Amino acid sequence: MGDTMKRGMRPQSRSSGWNQYLLILATAVALAAVALTGCAQRQYEEIDLSERVDDAELILIAPDADSGALRFGFDLRGNAGEDAREYLPFLRYLEQATGLSFELRFTPKDSTAGDMLGTGEFDFAALGAGSYLEANERYGVIPLVRGVNAEGRTEYRSVIVVAPDSPIQRIEDLRGRSFAFSCLNSTQGHLIPRIILAEHGMSLEDLASYEYTGSHQNCANAVAAGRFDAGGVQDILAQRLVADGLLRIIHTSEYHPSSGITANPDLPPDVIEKVRQALLDFQPAGAHADGLYHWDRTEMANGFREAREDDYDELREWSIRFGLLDAPAGGEAQ
Fold first, then answer.
1. Domain end: 210, 234, 256, which one?
2. What DSSP string describes 267-279?
3. CA atoms within 13 A on the CB side of 201
4. pLDDT in tens, 278-328
5. Contacts of 259 (CB under 8 A, 6+ apart)
6. Diameter of the chain by CA atoms?
7. 272 and 192 in contact (C-beta within 8 Å)?
8. Are residues 55 and 142 in the same domain?
9. 179 has which bridge partners?
10. Are residues 12 and 143 part of one domain?
């Protein structure tokens, strides 16, 4: 039996797993400095947009190559430490619900979570729709579930934000302006903002300049700090920062399929189905709320619903139009 077949098949042991190696946040941040994301990183020091708890409250598992645990990766949303705080209690739930072992993994700076999932470095990953589409095209990764947000929807939106005192009032005012995206493979931080521009008769060439900042938080920070005239970020983060008086929304997109959990296609089918069922049974606002960290701020605040490949057809067509995906053989996107 190969490594993929063995991985995650043994139940979690109380003497190993979560309690075997403990590292505080300082170690997580050091790890993240060299293994953060495939996006170009640009940090802005003027404004700290994250709510932080004491560093000693974060406990991470030191990856053990011989542990046999299922490796869970993720698209970066904020910063590595905060994202880890959100996912670690969630992985504890999956362990309890499935009897399998899980460990959290960061994405190396020269790769993406989708690539790591497709090549077998991750077994499962939380991916945005754009990341999923790319990984599905290249590796055939399997969509398991889509997140259900606080409004009970399996869709999310992107917003275009500016500084509160900016003269920019509408999308057409962005011509000749600088624009911040999060990551090239981000749905809310790149693909949907590109769709918004296109729907208003604009392309990247109509901007004075644009840059990929590395995460939604970096993007919001760049706009709030005045480094860019506008930016495209996830709706949940933007709404919180608007309430804090740090940003102003000039446009909100239509709804598009939300982020979800995706599996490597080489995993045993019974493992995939066991994890899928545990995800569908997850009640973060109810029976499983205890111990979760800021899960209500994610696009998965109310758990998950089953995902299908054709959920993403419209975004796939836009991705082909923008040159982010290849057109299918014998046809082009409309």
1. 256
2. S-HHHHHHHHHHH
3. 4
4. 999 999 988 999 988 889 888 888 999 999 999 999 999 999 999 999 887
5. 75, 126, 127, 128, 129, 146, 147, 156, 187, 299, 300
6. 63
7. no
8. yes
9. 210, 230
10. yes
